Amino acid sequence: MSTAITEPVVPYDEVIAEFDPVLGLEVHVELGTATKMFCGCPTEFGAEPNTQTCPTCLGLPGSLPVVNAIGVESAIRIGLALNCSIAEWCRFARKNYFYPDMPKNFQTSQYDEPICFNGYLDVEVETDDGMRTFRVEIERAHMEEDTGKTSHQGGATGRIHGADYSLVDYNRAGIPLIEIVTKPITGTGKYAPEVAKAYVTALREILRGLGVSDVKMEQGSLRCDANVSLRPSPESPLGTRTETKNVNSLRSVERSVRYEMTRQAAILRAGNKVMQETRHWHEDTGVTTSGRPKSDADDYRYFPEPDLVPIAPSREWVEQLRAALPENPSVLRARVQAAWGISDFEMMAVVKAGALELVAATVAAGADQAAARKWWVGEVTRIANERGVELVDLPITPVDIARVEAMVGAGALNDKLARQVIEAVLAGEGSPDDVVATRGLAVVSDDGPLLEAIDAALAEAPDVAEKILSGKLAAAGAIVGAVMKATRGQADAARVRELLLERLGVAE
Amino acid sequence: MSDTPSITRADVAHLASLARIDLPPESLDHYAEQLAVILGAVAQVAEVAADDIPPMSHPLPLVNVFRTDEVRPSLTSDEALSGAPSVESDRFRVPRILDEA
Question: What is the Cα–Cα distance from A86 to A58, expressed in whole angstroms?
């Protein structure tokens, strides 16, 4: 393969000054069904190789597929959540190709009759002029099946290029996928990378809310292919696009789009033509490299799948599913923001941290909204970032946070101790109550030991005592600090200060 | 209506490459002729298909044949791999995928 070829790029500001970007995003969602799309094999992630297969998903002669009802139901619910029309009648099609990730030599997909079509998703992006809503139009969402997993052997990089041979595990082959394809996204200007990220973020939020998938990008249950092209102006015809694959995190959606814009701009500026091709995103180096050009091999010879009968969702069924949809996340956000009475800026912090549902659940568990936001957006987000994981994936629950906050409210913990409790819960030491009991954490509320500690601190620093007596109350901080240290943080700092001033006979 | 569809040598060569069949060049005309006859036979359908007969892809007048989402036993990996020409680490071993010079 072509390693370490650094292609020329144009500074982003100049790209925007000279070109108008157009995006197209294809997202594949692996459904969380118990079984595959066309057979009863389980879909568990991480099983031993080739232990979740049967004659149907191995493509053995004489086997026949039967459609998973939940697969169809999930597809319709996704379509409805994305404001799509639902086909009254549609079929599966065979997409023929030769590649060992599908043992049948075709993928069962949908071609010109997708089950969902013509929808949209509104996404919000922070711009120079505040929050702005961009409408992303959805071309279609269709049902298909996932492929097997190939691992390439020989060659240095574990990639297909330079490999001597490949090994295939068909556990994943046949797992239901929904492919969601946008129409060309125009009018984003310099915000194209942010709109791309906001779209995938919003889509993931909706899919999680529907409960149809665990939407883990790092495990591949949500995958994004980003199509990018540039044109001289919004009036010009669409330019030649590239399709970037291997975009495995929200951050890389934004970065890969930005990179591809700067790379294509350099080609166009030099008077050359962008080649229509698949590109491969490299998270580590932040560049894309050439995959394979579109070619003859992409003649998929689609035809209607003769082994499956058409799908004709009754209007009653569709309306039942529509009525049972969860509240749309953006509607939920507006409602929650009003209920909490917080500013756009404060709301944005919660949404950006991916903490909305967690904060709401913490409030539902009895905590004050401000306190719930403080813990999730502050301390817990900091730890999630340190560990490089999503907030929701940390082993602490809204009930835990509400309990910690209740103890703070009751004066049993101060903020410092509360942080220790949260860290201990995340370290697997049990519930907040377990941690407090085991570690013996409690605010010292008895004045006796506090007064002793204050006297000791004053004796250590007579100069500070003088300062306070002469009216420099700011100096009290040094004594309070010394007392907090002496009590290993288990004192209530405000109470210590109160006692100190009382002791010295100084009024606040 | 029963014009014999025309199939060129290039069409046959293209189809052969899509289907990964190695056809010697001297046989292309031969297959072009045969394929044209087959397509001609199928094209007779067009003589009876009228505007009031919608195209069909399935002989049964059925829709929505679904299965409940319940796990059924899979094959063991030994069973799954029993027909594989080559196996390594419980996986199907397949030849190099990209044709690289």
Answer: 31
